[in-house]
Specification:
Helices cover 5% and strands 29% of the residues.
């Protein structure tokens, strides 16, 4: 038993480091050696010192609300630590104990699941505890571990900073930021980089409340009785005589998941403004998921503009103690368990009387709402509550989804309660405009006047009318997938609105409620961050909902707010137009564009001005999927069983006998972020072509980030050329129900969680048998990929799945990055079709030919053929030599170039695998004969340039084009004579320039050889080593260094 680590002798020693820390109650015994351990060598020494862990109460137990066992930066664990054994099992550390800054139990421990420890999101934030008494700037994320007071100083918080806060400081107090009277907080975020105050613990639910304190600002403006003690904090007072004082600026500030309750009627609100003066700026601010109130103004004169309150536990906007400020543009969602949209109090007829002037506000309640506030002194079921003698002005207000009572008033004083706006007399009147809208459940009570408010002047009148907001379900709640609270063009908010007061604070409006067409919460609200509302990008687009039954042209951007059906008409979409679509229409249906049989869609974009279908919501990640429906085109071409009902839409059928029918044209069309799933095996694909005929043109089209499949062809004969599918949730190209069309030049990136590159089915031996002819395609997998499709009927890992008796032809294919747990081709449920690698000269559609010249590359197996599916045995297993393609290619890859190398050596003597053993394509005017496999050639930029998502996001690397491509063997129809002579002149100039460059290069070559002969530079023994093959095995770009006289180049 020793404190000195022996160099040998294991296992016959017990070493306990004397540097270990033992700490606890006063008078503890560090070591107790009993019996036979009390004599001879004994353990006696350790460091008796406080380890200074961040937040670990001395009585830490199973009911402790919050702990953080990581050491503080000045902890003794960072000194006198022991070296770890020299064994590969151990991780070398420079600290003692289980944790440094990485709290590795975050997110998965019981403590994490029950919000008892910091979350991993706050892991990189600097922990702060202490008073701020001199001007301070926070320019990076901060975690508050205690209540931080700003006193006689200015705290500046830069845009984009997140302030995390723990639930408890170890002494029963909730960390919060408190700005004392005379101090300032300047927190200026932007819509792109808001400042966020939120919990530092792991959320067990997105709607968790009460997980930290809140933001409290106190000032010296007038309040009831001169001064008051602030709620939620002990011993701090506010109030004075400076009505115009500035306590700083709050712009684009979000306060989420706070509101720790100390006791009944003593809680921390989301944003408390106590005695704050009118010189303070508060605009574009939001409180979401606070356990108590959202914004609470205790006296003072501060004005608020563009504020949002979402799903707080008690009252959204609370005023009291003589608050006399102005509020314009307020948006409130109460939810099923919230209490009041406003609770506005005064102190009877005492001075100052509260006089909030609230204009342009929208309150969205819940038709089945029932308040469940844990901190309120009442549970009255009223959307707006006015009481205790408050005065004020309330104009241009929209209150919707009222479950029971619109406005409840009680405990009135001597104030005049009126629907006619007085020209004087403030603050001793309460005006509630009779033009305000109150709407909700059948039989609601618009006004409930109780007690002293039931006699004398009373509030009785409002417009009981549907405000016709775009997408606001009656049961709008914290889990509602999508809302758009802007009014429709025929909404009554555009009539009988009130004039705003003639004060420079107010913006003149010609509508009621918080919004016109500008949804000012886009991009920065919790709703925006979670893709629940339209994005600002779609703000200028015209909203469209309805059927199209006559020829129509969309020449400017459109937002689909419902499922739009084109019937017996042609819809034309001009180049460059973007079609946005919402997630939900308010009735549980995903907006989509559906072209019915017999109708046409002519969408002709260009590479410089593609047509884009995308989500109208704000993306929380570039890879977001399932945020709207998709594009569905149905036709009258042959399908299995004659007609079928289309996936994702109820009651619409397709199919017939017209194999050559045209449903229009899709050129340079992009469909992104769609694929809303309705149920298992019933989802909306990116582009659905159902029973579409061969007269339809589909070329240069892309589906990216669809939650379900990319392109899905249900029967029909439509042909596709130059198609791209990027990172969809299920299958990139799916065919079924007798599809007999042609596909050439297809590019697919599967990503880390995508499923199959193709899933090609038929219906056994039923007629028509599916017979896709797929040539010149490149499929890129992910060596660490695992399918996680939410809509598929299987999770089998295979880049191509061929099943259920499908026929077809598959030639000149490249499958790369086949991971070790996957296979290149998986085939099951075969029928009587011939499966062969010798292309039959006849017999369509009853054979499936898979060329033995196709390339299948990666550590995974080439084939898995289930019983009864024998026939395919051979492929080329070589690396296809794509120019730049990581083995973990995904949406966050920084650079890719999927074109192929024609030669593997600098001398151009070794052809690349993609240029060897190339199969002939069918002798058909649809197919182009090319001398390479895959979707792209070596000698020209890919056809994705300019319009693909990869190009838009600067991921695509353009291949240098030395000259005109010779890859296509299609013949030109000739060149006009003037153009011919122009080309000849250009060629002469090029030849002369080439000769000059050749002369210069020969000079360099001669000098190079002379230097080699003199020994002045190294003579590379393997010239091929100087050829930069762009990608290593791990997907990284390799640099090759040539050393010249100790100088690196």
């Amino acid at each position: 038993r020793t404190h000195t680590l022996p160099s040998s002798g294991a296992p016959d020693y017990l070493w306990f480091s004397s540097q270990n820390i033992i700490y606890g109650a006063t008078g503890i015994t560090a070591f107790e050696n009993e019996g036979s351990c009390s004599s001879g060598s004994r353990l006696t020494t350790a460091r008796i010192i406080d380890p200074r862990l961040t937040t670990v109460p001395g009585t830490a137990d199973e009911d402790t609300e919050f702990i953080d066992p990581r050491p503080l930066s000045n902890s003794p664990v960072y000194s006198s630590f022991d070296a770890t054994p020299s064994d590969s099992f151990y991780t070398t550390t420079n600290y003692m104990g289980a944790f440094d800054t990485d709290l590795w139990i975050s997110d998965w421990s019981y403590l994490a699941e029950n919000s008892r420890i910091p979350s991993s999101e706050s892991g990189d934030a600097s922990t702060f505890c202490g008073d701020i008494t001199s001007d301070t700037t926070w320019s990076s994320d901060i975690t508050l571990s205690c209540q931080v007071f700003v006193s006689d100083a200015t705290l500046t918080i830069n845009a984009g900073v997140t302030i995390y806060a723990f639930l408890d400081d170890g002494d029963g107090k909730s960390p919060a930021l408190i700005v004392l009277p005379g101090a300032r907080l300047n927190a200026r975020g932007t819509s792109a980089a808001p400042i966020t105050f939120t919990t530092g613990t792991t959320l067990s639910s997105p709607s968790d409340r009460g997980l930290w304190g809140g933001l409290i600002i106190m000032g010296n403006a007038p309040v009831y009785q001169g001064t008051q003690e602030v709620e939620g904090i002990t011993g701090q007072t506010y109030g004075g005589n400076d009505a115009t004082e500035s306590s700083g600026t709050l712009e684009y500030v979000r306060v989420w998941h706070g509101g720790s309750v100390i006791g009944e009627n003593n809680e921390i609100n989301g944003i408390t403004l106590a005695g704050v003066g009118s010189g303070t700026t508060v605009r574009y601010c939001e409180v979401a998921f606070n356990l108590d109130d959202g914004f609470e103004m205790f006296g003072g004169t501060v004005n608020l503009k563009y504020i949002s309150v979402l799903f707080v536990g008690d009252d959204a906007i609370d005023t009291d103690e003589g608050y006399q400020g102005m509020i314009q543009f307020a948006y409130v969602m109460i939810g099923a368990s919230g209490n009041h949209g406003v609770e506005m109090d005064s102190k009877g007829d005492a001075s100052p009387r509260s006089f909030p002037q609230l204009y342009s506000a929208t309150f969205v309640h819940h038709l089945e709402g029932n308040p469940e506030s844990v901190s309120s002194d009442d549970q009255f079921d009223a959307t707006l509550r006015l009481r205790e003698g408050t005065g004020g002005e309330f104009g241009n207000i929209v209150v919707t989804n009222v479950p029971n009572v619109g406005v409840r008033q009680d405990d009135c004083g001597s104030e005049d309660r009126t629907h006619i706006l007085p020209s004087s007399g403030a603050p001793d009147y309460l005006w509630f405009s009779s033009q305000n809208i109150i709407y909700g459940a059948t039989g609601i009570t618009a006004f409930e006047n109780e007690g002293s408010c039931s006699s004398g002047s009373r509030l009785t009148t409002a417009r009981i009318i549907d405000p016709r907001l775009t997408t606001v379900p009656g049961t709008a709640d914290e889990d509602t997938e999508f809302i758009d609270p802007r009014p429709l063009s025929n909404s009554p908010v555009y009539s009988s609105f009130d004039a705003t007061p003639s004060d420079s604070f107010y913006t003149t409006t010609n509508y009621m409620g918080a919004f016109d067409t500008d949804l000012w919460i886009s991009d920065w609200s919790y709703l925006a961050e979670n893709s629940r509302i339209p994005s600002s990008e779609s703000g200028d687009a015209s909203t469209f909902c309805g059927d199209i039954t006559s020829d129509t042209t969309w020449s400017s951007d459109i937002t689909l707010s419902c499922q739009v059906f084109v019937s017996d008409a042609t819809l034309t979409i001009n180049a460059g137009v973007t079609i946005y679509a919402f997630l939900d229409d308010g009735d549980g249906k995903s907006p989509a564009l559906i072209v019915l049989p017999g109708a046409r869609l002519n969408a002709r974009g260009t590479s410089a001005a593609p047509i884009t279908f995308t989500t109208g919501t704000t993306l929380s990640s570039p890879s977001d999927r399932g945020l709207w429906g998709g594009l569905i085109i149905m036709g009258n071409a042959p399908v299995y069983q004659g007609t079928q009902e289309v996936e994702g839409i109820t009651g619409q059928t397709y199919g017939g006998n017209d194999a050559t029918e045209s449903s229009g044209t899709l050129e340079y069309v992009r469909v992104w972020h769609g694929g809303s799933v309705i149920g298992e095996n019933n989802e909306i694909n990116g582009i659905t072509l159902a029973g579409v005929g061969s007269g339809t043109t589909v070329r240069f089209c892309e589906v990216a980030f669809n939650l379900d499949d990319g392109f899905e062809m249900f029967g029909g004969t439509v042909n596709l050329k130059y198609i791209s599918v990027l990172f969809v949730g299920d299958d990139a190209i799916d065919t079924d129900e007798g599809y007999q069309g042609k596909i050439q030049f297809a590019f697919v990136m599967i990503g880390t969680d995508g499923h199959h590159g193709t899933e090609m089915d038929s219906k056994g031996d039923a007629s028509p048998r599916s017979f896709p002819q797929l040539y010149s395609a490149t499929f890129v997998g992910h060596l660490s990929g695992t399918p996680s499709s939410v809509s598929s009927d299987d999770q089998i890992e295979a880049m191509m799945r061929l099943r259920e008796g499908t026929g077809g032809e598959f030639g000149n294919l490249i499958l790369t990055n086949v991971n070790v747990d996957a296979v290149g081709v998986y085939q099951d449920s075969c029928g009587s079709e011939i499966r062969t690698q010798e292309l039959p000269s006849s017999g369509k559609p009853d054979y499936m030919w898979f060329s033995s010249n196709n390339i299948v590359s990666g550590p995974g197996a080439s084939f898995e053929l289930r019983p009864g599916c024998d026939g395919i045995t051979t492929v080329i297993g070589s690396d296809p030599a794509l120019r730049l393609m990581p083995t973990d290619a995904d949406y966050d890859s920084t650079s890719i170039d999927p074109s192929v190398l024609e030669f593997l050596d600098a001398e151009k003597t070794i052809p690349g695998p993609a240029y060897s053993f190339v199969d002939d394509v069918p002798d058909d005017n649809f197919f182009d004969s090319v001398p390479y496999k895959g979707a792209f050639s070596s000698d020209q930029s890919t056809w994705l340039v300019g319009w693909s998502w990869l190009a838009d996001n600067d991921v695509l690397v353009e291949t240098s084009t030395p000259g005109a491509s010779s890859s296509s063997k299609k013949k030109s129809s000739g060149i006009a004579e003037p153009i011919f002579w122009t080309i000849i002149a250009i060629l002469i100039v090029v030849v002369i320039a080439a000769c000059i460059m050749g002369y210069i290069c020969m000079g360099y070559k001669n000098k190079y050889e002379q230097l080699i002969d003199q020994g002045d530079i190294l003579n590379p023994t393997n010239p091929a080593a100087l050829h930069l093959h762009s990608v290593g095995e791990n997907g990284d770009t390799e640099n090759i260094e040539l050393t010249v006289k100790d100088t690196e180049v």
